Amino acid sequence: MTNEQLEQLLSELSLEEKLGQLTQCEASFFIENAGLAATGPESAIGLKPEDLKLMGSVLNCVGAENCIKLQREFMENHPHHIPLIMMDDVIHGYRTQYPIPLALACAFDDELTEECARMASHEAALEGVHVTFAPMVDISRDARWGRCMESCGEDTTLTKRLGAAMVRGFVGDGGENTVGSCVKHFCAYGAPEAGRDYNNVELSERTLRQTYLPGYKAALDAGAHWIMPSFNSIGHLPMTGNSYILKDILRGEWGFKGAAISDYNAFREIQWHGAAETMKDVAEIPRHCGVDMEMMSGTTILHSKELLAEGRITMEEIDTSVRRILQEKNALGLFENPFRFANADAAADYIMSDANKALALRAAEESAVLLKNDGALLPFKKDIKKLALIGPFAAEKGIKGFWSCVGVDEETVSVYEGIKALLPDTEILLDAGCSYDLLNTTPIDVLTANAKKAAAIAKEADAVLLCIGEYQNYSGEGNSRAEIRLPLPQRILAQEVLSENPDAAVLLFGGRPQDISDFEPLTRAILYMWQPGTMGGTAAAHLVFGDAVPCGKLSMTFPRSVGQVPIYYAHQTTGRAIKDPDIPGMPHPFTSRYMDMPVSPLYAFGHGLSYTTFEYGPVTLNTDTLTEDGSITATATVKNTGNVTAKESVQFYVRDLIGSVARPVKELKDFKKITLAPGEEKTVSFTVKEEDLRYWDKDLQYVSDAGAFHAFIGPDSDTQNYAGFVLKK
C-alpha cells in the first residue's frame, strides 16, 4: 500500500475505528471456538463486544489455525477490513527453547544470539505471530529483581551488541518467516528500588544516558520498529506519561518514527501511581507523550471522545498515532497478506525440528558458566560404573526458563534423561533429597533426615552430581526475591552431601546470580547451567562428561551476599575507596567497606573457567598517543596451555583516569570469541577511537577528555593486564 493509499484510508476511518486501531486486547477476548464472541472484556476492562470488532491488535493468539481463523473473521466484520497485528512474547524461543537471555548473554557471542533469535522468529512466524515483545535491553545490576533473567545483564556494551543481534535475528531483512521486534522496557526498568519489580526508579540523567539508554538505541538502530514504555516511574513520573523521555529523547533526539505500545494495563496504572486522578486523565496523558497503542486497559476507547470534545487532546494526536499503526501494518505486509507466514503444516514440520534442537543444545552448552573447578574435578570420566544424581533438579523438567512462550516442560530434557542417553550402561542412583519449593514448611528434622539419606546414597557412588538451584518460576516478571540464597531444604541437602563427599560436583540452576556462600566453600566444582531451555539436560550431560567444554562468562556479577547488591564491575571509585577489597573489618577504618565481609564479589562479571587454561600475554599498543581523528590498536596474545580445544571470550576494557565527573574503574568496550587448540596461540587486537571514550560530562555534553587512559585485555573484568595511553586534543 502506498503512502497516498494509507492517508486515504486514514481519512475514511470513523473516530471509533481510529480509537480501535490504538487498542490491543488479549486473543482470549475473541477466541471462543475461534469466533468473535466476547469472553470477558466488558468485565475486565470495560469494553463491549462491538468495540472488539475495531481492535488494532491482539496478543497471545496461539497456533497458526487460530491466528488465521481469527484474522479472517475479524477482517470480514471490520468496516474497512483492516487486519490485526498478532503480538506475543517470544523471549528465548517459541516452542524450541534456548537459554534465558541472561544465560545466552554469557556466551558473549553475537552470531549465536542472532541465530537463536532467527530460529525463534521462524517458529513464531509460522504460527502466526507478527511482532515479538523482545528484546528486553534493560540493564540489570540487582539480582533481587526477578526480571533480570530476561536481560543481557549488567553491562552496556554487552547489552548493545546482543540486543542488536536479537533484533537482526527476529527481523532479518523482513523476508520470509520473520517477525517484527518491539524493544522493551523503555527505560531503566532494570533499576527498581529494593529490586522489587515495577518499583520506582531514581537515576541521575547522566547515569540514564550513559548506562541505560544506549541499549534501546542500539536495538532501534538494528531495525526494531516498536518500543514499549516501562511500568516504572523515573523521578516520580510514570514512564507511560513521561513526555521528556518519550518525546524529547526518543522521537526528538533519536528521530524514532515507529510505534510505541504500552505494557499490560499500564495506562490505568498511571492512576495507581498517583499521577492521575481519573481514568479520563489516564487516557489523556500518554496521548501527549506519543504512546500510540494501549495494551489491555481500554481507556482510549472509553474516554477519548470526551477528551476531544473538551479540547484536552487533539484529532492530530489521534491521527498521528493511527498513522503509525497503519504504517507498521503496511511494513509487515499485512494489507497484502493479512495471514503473513502463518502455515500450520509448515509449522508442524519446522517447530522442534532436529536442527532447532541442535541449535538450542549448542546455545545451552556455550551459555553454561564453570564457576569453580578446583583440581580439575570436572569433567567426570565416562567409564564410571555408578553415578549418584542427587537434588531436586536431578530429574526435574522445569528448567527451560520463565517467559517460555508455548514451550512445554514435557519436551524439556532433564539432567537424568541427558546423562542416561549419553551413558546408557552407567548405573544412576537418583534421589531428589528435597523439594525445590521456595517457602518451606517441612520440619527441619525431616529435611535433615532426607538429606542424610541422600548423602548416604552419594557415598556409594563413583561420582556425585548435586543438582540444586532455583526453579524456573521463581525468577521472571513479578518474581523479585529479598533473599537470593537457596531455599533452606536445599541448603541442608548441600551441607550433608558435600560434607559426606567433597568431591561431589554441583550443577546449579537459576534465573539470576545467587548467593551460594552456604555451599561454595564445600565443593570443588560448580557449573552454572542457568535455565538452559529445551535441551538443558543434554547440554548438562555433555558438559559434565567432557563432550562439550564450558566457555560461558558471567553477564552479571555474583555477590557474596544479598547485602552487596546492587553490585557491578563498572562502579565508580570513591574518595575513601578500600585499598584491599578482599579484607573486611577494621584494618581499613573510615573507608567504603563492610565490617563483616569483603566488598569484592564472589565471582566477577566476565568470569568463567574452562577445561583448559589460557595464558594472556602483556598488552601492547601500536602507539601511546591517540588523536581525535586517529585510532589505537591494543593487542595481546592468548595461548591455550591445557590439553583440550576450547573457546575463550577475550574482553577489552578501558579506564578513563580523570574526567570532569567520576568515571567507572573499567568499562567493557569490545570482546572477541576465539577457539584455540592445545598449545595454540593467537594474537587478539582491539581498536579504540576518540569516539569510544566519550561520556556525559558535568554539563551533560557527550564528549571525551584529553588525558590518560588504561587499555585492558583479559579473561574477565578483574584483569589488571593493561597498557597506558594518552588522548590528545
What does this structure look like?
The structure is a single chain. The protein is of the alpha/beta class and 729 residues long. It has a domain at 614-727: Immunoglobulins (Immunoglobulin-like, Sandwich). Helices cover 30% and strands 18% of the residues. The protein is built from 20 helices and 27 strands. It has an 8-stranded parallel β-sheet. It is globular. The two termini are 51 Å apart.
Top-tier CATH class of the domain at 614-727: Mainly Beta
Question: Which structural category fits the helices and strands?
Answer: alpha/beta
Radius of gyration (Å): 27 Å
Overall pLDDT metric: 95
Strand content: 15-25%
Largest sheet: 8 strands, parallel
- Major beta sheet, strand line-up: 9-6-5-4-3-2-1-10
Task: Please name the CATH topology of the domain at 614-727.
Answer: Immunoglobulin-like
Offer a few descriptive terms.
single chain, 729 residues, alpha/beta, Immunoglobulin-like, eight-stranded parallel sheet, six-stranded mixed sheet, 20 helices, 27 strands, 30% helix
